[in-house]
Amino acid sequence: MKPTSCPACGAGKVAPRSADGVRFGYKNVPDLRAGPDLRVPTCDRCGEIFVGEEVAKQIDQHMERRYAELVVAKTQLAINRLTPTEVSRRDLERLVGVSAGYLSKLAHEAREPSSPIASVLMLLAEDPARVEELRHLWHDKDRRQAVTSPAKSFGEAERRAERWEREFATCFPKSGGAAGGGLQ
Fold first, then answer.
1. Closest by alpha carbon to 98, among 76, 116, 72, 123?
2. Which of 31, 32, 35, 48 is deepest in the core (most CB within 10 A)?
């Protein structure tokens, strides 16, 4: 592309320039940074970026690759922060509902993680006490106890347990339901 005058400011020249450091909202990442290999038509004076159909496709391809790299990196960091000090990989796999060996494959880049699994692992790594809370929440024997055990105070525990019971009852009524009986 030959430099042309900028239609936005009228004083600068528009030519392909590196978009390194420019941040775009992409999927669930509000500020995904473009890399140095992305070149987009940009005014040298006002910085306006001009995106046509072809450039939009290039940006999408570039940002998809950057997004996949970010999801892998954040997943690996979360796994390393959680295992083995907080929980074993196998226990963590059971807890988040993935097959045996899956986290090892993610940690060694043998598999590409999904955004939802990366999000769960990041949340757990940010507050490892949530691992035990999640473990309690998955118990089915005594839902009330499972919800209250990780709470910080008795009042908070009671409020959390009552909210859980209401929500659970809504999802699984004692009569009716899809199978004609719900959970008993």
1. 116
2. 32
Count of the separate structural domains present in the chain: 1
Q: Is residue 146 part of a domain?
A: no
Q: Is 70 within a domain?
A: yes
pLDDT in tens, 49-62: 999 999 999 999 99
DSSP readout, 124-168?
HHH-THHHHHHHHHH--S-HHHHHHTT-SSHHHHHHHHHHHHHHH
CA dihedral defined by 79, 83, 87, 91, rounded to 10 degrees?
60
pTM of the model: 0.70
154 found inside a domain: no
Q: What is the pLDDT of residues 72-124, one digit of tens each?
A: 999 999 999 998 777 899 999 999 999 999 999 999 989 999 999 999 999 99
Distance CA 65, CA 26 (A): 11
The helix or strand, by DSSP H or E, that contains position 18, with its residue range, turns out to be strand 13-18
Domain assignment present for residue 65? The answer is: yes
What residue numbers bound the domain in which 52 lies?
13-138
Fill in the DSSP letter of residue 45: T
